[in-house]
Every structure is written in C-alpha cells, then in structure tokens.
Amino acid sequence: MTILFTPFTKVFKLDSEQLKFYNRWLLISAVLIFIAALCSTGFHHFDEQWQIFEFLGLKLGKTSKELLPWEYHNQMRSWAQPFLYYLSSKALFLENPFWIALVSRLVTAFIGWYALGCLSICSMYLYRDFDKAKWATYCLSLFWFIPYLKVRPSSEGLSASVFIIGLSLLITQLESRKYNYSSLFISGLVCGLSFLFRFQMGFLILFTWIWLVLFSTIPFKKSFLFALGVCFAVAIELPIDIWGYETFSFAPWNYFYQNLVLDKASGFPTAPWYDYFISSFHRGIPPLSIVLIITQVLFWIFKPKSIFTWATLPLFIVHSLIPAKASRYLFPLAVITPLFIPWAHTFLVEKLRVYRKFVGPKFIKAIIAINLILLTQSILRSSKSTVGLYKYVYDQSIKEVHYKGESPYSMVGLELMFYRQKGLELRELPDFKTNLEQKYLISKKGKEIFELKDKGCELKYSNYPTWVLNYNAFGWVDRSRIWSLFYCP
C-alpha cells in the first residue's frame, strides 16, 4: 500500500521494517474506513443532505430549484462537492440514489484514508522518532470518531482531508529542503482545493502561508508559489459555480456578502466564545474528550512556532469569536488532534509528577478499551435511521404511503427529494384509527407499533430488529422514536 505514498516514504527514507509497519496499519485503517462507508448511511447534519446531496439531486433530475434551501437561491454554496459526486455517479452510470450515496461516501473515504496515511507518515517530521510516529499512527487510525468523520460526505470532512494532503505535500518540501517549484505550487493547489469544499478553510491556508514566510527556510520568493497554487485552485471555483447555478456566479463572494455584509449569520443559534470547550467535552465523550482537549491546548501553548499550530489554531480562534457555533465546524481540527497525543503524553510525563503517578498502564488500558467500544459503535451505525426506511420504500417500489404529523420526507421545513422515487405519493392522515385498509403507514412512535399490530397491520420495516421490539421491558419501546412501515390489508 505504501506505493501510493512514495513521495512521502522517499523523503523520510523509511527502511523495510518501517514500510512494513505502515503497510499493515494503512490496511487496518482502510478496512475500518471501508466498513464505516458501508454502514454510515444518511447524513450527520442537515447541511450534508440539503446543501450537497439535494444540490446533486437537482443535476440528476431528482429535485427542483424551488425546493432547495435559501443558500441555493442566494448562490452562496460551492458546487465543488456536488460536482465531484456528479462525476462519480455518471462515470458508473448510477441512477439509484442509495448507490450514488454509497459511491459518494466511498470517494470521500478514499480521500480521507489517503489523508490519514499522509499525515501518519509525516508525523516523522513532528517527532523525529519512529516509536512516537508509530503511536501517532495508532491514534490517527483508531481514535473512535476518525473513520466516521473520514467517510462523511460533508464539507467539513472532505475539506479537512484535502487540506491535510496539501499540508503533507508541503511538509515533504520542508523535510527535503529542495523547495521544488512545481511541488510548492502543487501543495498550494491541493490546499486551495480544500477551500472549494469549505470556505472557512481559507483561514488555515492563509496562516499556513504566513508560517512559511515567518518561520520556514523556504526563500521568500518561492513561498509565493504556494500562494499561486492556492489562487489557481480558487479560480477553479468560478466555472464549477457557473455549471451549478447555470449563471455567472462566484459562491465565495456571495457567501461573504450574505453572512457578513448582510449579517445573516447572526440569525443562526449563537453561543459564547468558550462553548467549544464545553461541546467538545460532551460530544467527544469523557474521558477521551478530556485527553483530546488537553492534548490540543498544550500543543498550541508549548509549540507556538510549529506549522501544525499555525495550520489549526486560527480556525479555532475564528470560530470561537463568531457567535454562530456548531461542533461540526471543528471537524477539520478533530481529525488532526490525535496526531499530538504521543507528544502530550511525553510532555506531561517529563513536566508533571501527578501525571506520572496516576496515568499508568491501567489507566491507558482503560482508555484504549473505552475507545475500541466507541470505535465499533461508530463504524457500524447509520447516521440517520430514516434512510433505511426510504430504501425499503424505494426497493419495494411502493407508490403511496400515509403518515400523520410531519411528513417523513420532510425535515427542518425542507422537502427531502434525493431518496424519493418518482411518483411516490405522500398522504397525511389525522390519525391511525380508521380507514387504514390497503394502506402503507409510516410511524415514528414506538407505542404505535403495538397499536397497529392490534389492528391487524403487518410490520414490513423497522429501524430496530423485530426481535428487539418483542422485549418491551419498562416500556422502552413505547417511549422510543422508532421508524417503522406497516401494511394494513
């Protein structure tokens, strides 16, 4: 496998044993990421669906412009990621939306896996010690959320992977000290492509270039080749957006104008500057989240001149200062932070007696055990349980379904069209008490499962296994949100 990483292995002059190690761990990480790509159906956040797959659905004839979110009508979202998935689906002659989504995850997964391999090998630049680089590889490959984030067809996930590849290419130049003109340009080009997928990556790119000017040994004039590559990548955005919006448009400017000039960003949910510490603590799951927070903060404080600090800290500062916040905005940092864990461990062992006393082999084994349990869960679970229901309706060619309350194909006030087959009729019922004959019913409440069964309706699909639903201990099924499809003869 390391043949794909030849530019990196040559620069760091890896011997046969080191190559064997990376071959083995690149294979392990590939398997984990592949499993996550197969199982991680649906979307992590609404933007992943409505600003990527529904945009893609427009080009595939699955949705109409009127049903797309306000970002489309203000032409402020990049078409780069939908364009990438459009090309992959057309190349394989795919029409089934579930196959298109799977291939999109696999494309994202490959890019994410390659980024992981690049960063693992380039950890030699940070550590100068193969034993520590090995532990960095373990952390990057096995930390519980890494495979999940690597396969997410989201702007945060894909942009992070592309940026890491570009940063790794730049590190090979710093390591070799050859400062090849074309290589500097290409590293800037790849970093610039991450901007196309998520505009906030511009802060990381800018401060990476500033680091080159202030701290690297690259001649000042040559550093502009990196910047030129970035500019060339940004220019690619224009024809892609013209293809997407079918008119002259440049999404980065529209994004800036809508969110900052017109101040529409202030309309989103806000939080204080320190919220990311709190949300990272909870969502990262203690005690693992504590390890990551301490690791990252220590690295920023005690490694202020590292290229990794300049390539990560600015994004955290900017998002902390902006009132609108969401944990997913920090995904680009989350996939890099495990790289610093061996450094933080060594630093604390040397500097802190309390750490040496309490963080022994038993504590580390407990952390590893918790992580492996979470890793297993994260690579096997679906991101959105309703997608299994959509797939069943699609595969069975069901033409009409009934529901009560909110439409199962509508979320946050937006119509979900990408997974809906043409001709599917959605009909709302006031209740599930009368006139149910010869109807397919979609329910999202667990307690309705027993009510519909008592009426003679047959359970066709549930996002929980049928045998699990038979054990309603303490009424957990009644209280749960369970998506199910019934047919009432």
Question: Can you put this structure into words, describing what you see?
Answer:
With 489 residues, the chain is mostly helical. The chain folds into two domains: 2-380, no CATH class; 386-488. It has 25 helices and seven strands. The chain has helices spanning 6-11, 16-39, 46-59, 70-73, 80-91, 97-127, 130-142, 146-151, 155-176, 181-197, 201-215, 220-245, 251-261, 275-283, 288-302, 307-310, 313-321, 331-334, 341-351, 353-358, 361-380, 386-395, 447-454, 466-469, 476-479, and strands spanning 400-403, 410-411, 414-415, 425-428, 439-445, 458-462, 481-488. The strands form three sheets. A three-stranded antiparallel sheet has the order 5-7-6. A two-stranded parallel ribbon has the order 1-4. The longest helix is centred in the N-terminal third of the chain and has 31 residues, at 97-127. The protein is globular and about 75 Å long. The chain starts with 5 loop residues before the first helix and ends with a strand. The model has no long low-confidence stretch (mean pLDDT 93).
